Amino acid sequence: MRHAVLAGLGAAVPEQRITNAMLAERMDTSDEWIRSRTGIAERRRVGPEESTSDLAVAAGRRALESAGGEPVDAVVVATTTPDHTCPATAPVVASRLGLGTVPAFDVAAVCSGFVYGLFTAAGLIAQGGAGRVLVIGAEAFSTIINPDDRTTAPIFGDGAGAVVLRAGDETEPGALLEFALGSDGSLADLIIVPAGGARQRSSGKPAAPDDHYFQMQGKTVFMHAVLRMEESSREVLRRAGWDTSSVDLLVGHQANIRILHAVADRLDIPAERAFVNLGHYGNTSAASIPLALDEAAATGALKAGDRVLLTAFGGGVTWGSVALRWPDLAAA
Ligand code: COA
């Protein structure tokens, strides 16, 4: 069977930095509370004329360059904050990247979106539908956050990360070896934007203003996130035939430093082998794993041949893990 192999990597974040001190001027919170409960010091926010596709194009361009500039056969954009409810963001991104009329579509799995995107792209490659696929996780998450809600505004940030996958062999460095994904829609209400979709519109009732904002039951989400990330990590490692001690780097969805450390701890992976960059980006949802991979590669935390475990949890609820060998790859 043809395997998907990681061939390029890139990331992009908006200029504007929002520090904890800036948030504390606006709401009843403090730098100390946010740092100690989440590990986050600052996050990026899109400017007035900036949107998800702008970040996706910038990250996608870098990933294409890092992969040698060859054209791709499909574009997958994982996002919770598409430019529009209709149409999808991926065709616009593909067009702006000059990729012609390739198939392009969005994947919506909130913070697990990038892992779902990899899964989809790897399937296209395995089935022969595409030889090279650009997978982008991009979010202007601040656009769905209530700027006055202290339970969500400190946590989320904007950004994008992208990879190019190409058809190859499972023995090659960069091969995506195994996946373990899942969902549980009975918990959909834990992470939700109640208004703006068909459910609210078809009710014929106007939405309460707050219902257009992202809402999350943080404590319950925390619990499920740790549980599912641990379970799916164990499952993907079992499928790959790796034990947890052989994992060189755990690149988890950057939700909260306490979640990342709890997952690492349960898997008996030392905290120093769990990559963390949420301090300067916060939780960027579908962008968080590729943003972390890009930084880990750029700073030398990821080396060619490393056994890498990706794991994510998000709204839906959804989760997923991937086992891969890191390729000899420079971020653009
Ligand atoms: N600043 C100061 N106090 C705050 C605050 C803030 N920004 N946000 C909440 N609080 C208060 C609460 O009102 C509560 O006060 P009370 O005890 O008087 O009621 C207290 O702090 C504790 O709140 P709680 O929600 O129990 O805190 P927590 O330790 O669970 O941390 C989260 C809250 C949101 C940081 C945490 O639950 C979390 O990270 N959850 C997972 C979120 C996540 O990662 N989601 C994405 C996954 S894909």
The class by helix and strand makeup works out as alpha/beta
Characterize the quaternary organization of these chains: single chain
Radius of gyration: 19 Å
- Percentage of residues in DSSP E strands: 15-25%
> What does the average pLDDT come to?
97
Query: Strands across the major sheet, in which order?
Result: 1-7-6-4-5
Terminal residue distance? 30 Å
As for the number of domains, it is: 2
User: What's the order of the H and E elements?
Assistant: EEHHEHEHEHEEEEHEHEHHHEE
Instruction: Count the DSSP helices.
Output: 10
CATH class of the largest domain: Alpha Beta
What small molecules does this complex bind? coenzyme A
Question: What form results from the Cα inertia axes?
Answer: globular
| CATH-defined architecture of the largest domain | 3-Layer(aba) Sandwich
CATH topology of the largest domain: Peroxisomal Thiolase, Chain A, domain 1
Largest sheet: 5 strands, mixed
Q: Can you tell me the CATH superfamily of the largest domain? A: Thiolase/Chalcone synthase
Unreliable parts: none
Primary descriptors:
10 helices; alpha/beta; Peroxisomal Thiolase, Chain A, domain 1; single chain; globular; binds coenzyme A; 23% strand
Give a quick summary of the entry:
The protein is an alpha/beta fold and 332 residues long.
Task: Describe the protein.
The protein is of the alpha/beta class and 332 residues long. The chain folds into two domains: 3-168, Peroxisomal Thiolase, Chain A, domain 1; 176-325, 3-Layer(aba) Sandwich (Peroxisomal Thiolase, Chain A, domain 1). 32% of the residues lie in helices and 23% in strands. The chain is built from ten helices and 13 strands. It has helices at 20-26, 31-38, 52-66, 90-96, 113-127, 198-202, 218-240, 257-266, 278-281, 288-298, and strands spanning 3-12, 16-19, 42-45, 74-78, 104-107, 132-139, 159-168, 176-183, 191-192, 215-216, 249-252, 307-314, 318-325. A five-stranded mixed β-sheet has the order 1-7-6-4-5, sandwiched between helices. The longest helix has 23 residues, at 218-240. The protein starts with a strand and ends in a 7-residue tail after the last strand. The model has no long low-confidence stretch (mean pLDDT 97).
